[in-house]
Structure formats: C-alpha cells, structure tokens
Amino acid sequence: MIRSRFTGCGSYLPENVLSNDELAESVDTSDEWIRSRTGISERRIAAEGELTSDLAVRAGQKAMDAAGLTPDDIDLVIVATATPDETFPATATIVQAKLGIHRGCAFDVGAVCSGFVYALAVADNFIRTGQVASALVIGAETFSRIIDWSDRSTCILFGDGAGAVVLQASEGDGTIDDRGILKTSLRSDGRTHDLLYVDGGPSSTQSTGHLKMSGKEVFRHAVVNLTSIVRDVLCDPDLTGVEIDWLIPHQANRRILDSTAQKLGIPPSQVIVTIDKHANTSAASVPLALSQGISDGRVKTGDVILMEAMGGGFTWGACLARW
Ligand code: UT7
Known about the structure:
By secondary structure, the chain is of the alpha/beta class. It has two domains: 2-171, 3-Layer(aba) Sandwich (Peroxisomal Thiolase, Chain A, domain 1), CATH 3.40.47.10; 180-322, Thiolase/Chalcone synthase (Peroxisomal Thiolase, Chain A, domain 1, 3-Layer(aba) Sandwich). Helix content is 31%, strand content 26%. The protein contains ten helices and 13 strands. The protein has helices spanning 20-23, 31-38, 52-67, 91-98, 115-128, 152-155, 215-234, 254-264, 275-278, 285-295; strands at 2-12, 16-19, 42-45, 76-80, 105-109, 134-142, 160-171, 180-188, 196-198, 211-213, 246-249, 304-311, 315-322. The longest helix has 20 residues, at 215-234. Oxa(dethia)-CoA (UT7) binds next to helix 2, helix 6, helix 7 and strand 12.
C-alpha cells in the first residue's frame, strides 16, 4: 500500500524575543504568574513587514532541503494558518510562488491550532489515493497580529513561527512497521464557537478582529478532547502492538500537555515540550516541536510519533506516524 513518508522537516522563528518581564511592563501580569499557569517564559514576534508567508517560506525551504528536493519535485503545497497574509489568495499560493514552485496546486487549511494535523491528514489522503507523489505541508502563524495586547488573559499565551514537513509517497507493507503516516483522526464541534474565536472577518465586520477566549472552558475541553482522539487512534485494531516513542502535542499550556500525557500514560521524558520558548504558535506549534525533536536528535528514523492538537471551532485531531 502507499504510505506518506516524512522525508524532511524544517522550522523558522522570528528573531525578536518577547520575554514575560517585557510583557509585564505593558499589562498587569508577572513572569511568575505566566510561568506557573502556562509554562511560557518567552515567545517570538514577527518583525514589522514580516508576513506569515515569509515565515512559511523559511520553514518550507528548510524542509525541502532536508528532503533533498527541488521546487520541481513538489506536487502540493498546503499552508495551515489562521493568520493569512491577505483575505485571498491563499497564503499557500504566495508561498508556492516565493519558493519557485510553478507546478501542482496549493491551498490553505483553516483549523486554527489543529491546522497542521488537519493538513497532514489532507496531504496523506492526496498521497494515498495517488493524486500527488509529494507534498509540502506547513504550519505558519503571526498570531501577534490578532492579539489584543491590552488583554492580559490572552496576550501572554501566543507567539509567531512556522514549521514544515515534506511527505512523499512510498510503498509500504500495510503494517505498523511501515515508515510514514499510520493513521489520522479528525474531529470538530461548531457549537463551541463562542469559547475561542476572533471577533472580526471580511464578511462580518470587514476588519481583522481580535482573539477572544474563555480560557478555563478551553482548557477543560482540551484535556478531554485530546485524550479521547488519541485513544480513538490507538484503538484501531490494525495498530495493535504499536509503541509510542514521542508525544508531540500542540503547545497551548504546559498544564494541558502534562495532564493529557498523564491520562494517556506517556511519561514526561517522552513528551516534546517547546512551550517555554515558543508559547502557543497555533498551527505552527506541532511542526516546530517536531523540528526541535529532530534537530536535537531525540526523534530518530523509525521512531513512532504521535502528534495531537486542539483549536478554535473546536477542531481537534491526531496523527500517528513512524518517522
Ligand atoms: O490553542 C488552544 C487555545 N488555548 C488554550 O488551550 C488555552 C487554555 N486555557 C489556559 O491555558 C488557561 O485557562 C489560562 C492560562 C488562559 C488561564 O489560566 P487559569 O488558571 O484558567 O486562570 P483563570 O482564567 O481562572 O484566572 C485566574 C486569575 C483571575 O483572577 P481572579 O479572578 O482570580 O482574581 C484572572 O483575572 O488570574 C487572573 N489572570 C492573570 N493574572 C496575572 C488572568 N490572566 C492573568 C495574567 N497575569 N496574565
């Protein structure tokens, strides 16, 4: 059977670092509160004029280089983002052009913080049906542009960045020993809209708007939904005996990460955590964490990785793969 194998990964963080202490100069908060309630110590902020597509291109180029591919080898570009450069065209088409990819197709996936996992599932389906042989899948965000910087309950949580992978079709035996994506599972429930949303948009207000969140409610749903989607993936009889080497979760809050891992029985030493340095970068957080795990040598060829995320909508999803 055809599997979508990961052949490259890359990431990019803007240079500008914003520490908790610096934030505490403009809103009523403290380094101690932010660290203890979220695990965040700093985040990156895109420079003026630095766009989501710019971050995506830097990460995407690194992923293509790691895979040893040229622009002519890429059939599909997907950018997962909730902070596109423009209302249209899709940021993915801007990235496609900037990377010199003049073939195939490109589109965005909008599932907010779950966007990268959703995009992996979409790309995997394109590859397994034989429609494309290679895909560049990117999560890229400039959440600093949709944050209300006077709202201490949200502005402390988010940061900017991008992460990317290359997926390529490869022949597998259809067993858990295959390298590549073994299973994806996606869910959403639009009834929870009011718990996490942006109060603007082209059709509603003709303005961009700002992020609004009921933090406690989102927290509660996150632990329940993430635990349940991971269990859903692992219950698949075709995956019997699979052992997870690395949990690579969406980095929303250190306490959500710890609580989910504990419920799943995954020891902290097998969880890749970047929230301290990156904060919540929405669709970029999972590929940024994956990239970190690969570059520091923790994630090795043949390791089983489990990626999971939840975001506005709510949307949530998981992807089990062998690197
Ligand atoms: O990517 C998916 C989307 N996001 C998430 O998954 C985030 C989920 N939620 C969270 O991470 C947490 O709910 C927060 C970090 C946002 C908040 O933590 P919490 O433990 O739920 O705090 P809280 O909202 O219950 O607030 C506790 C207190 C309140 O004061 P009072 O009413 O007890 O006097 C807040 O006003 O902390 C206050 N507070 C702050 N204090 C200092 C809220 N934000 C801050 C702040 N600094 N930045």
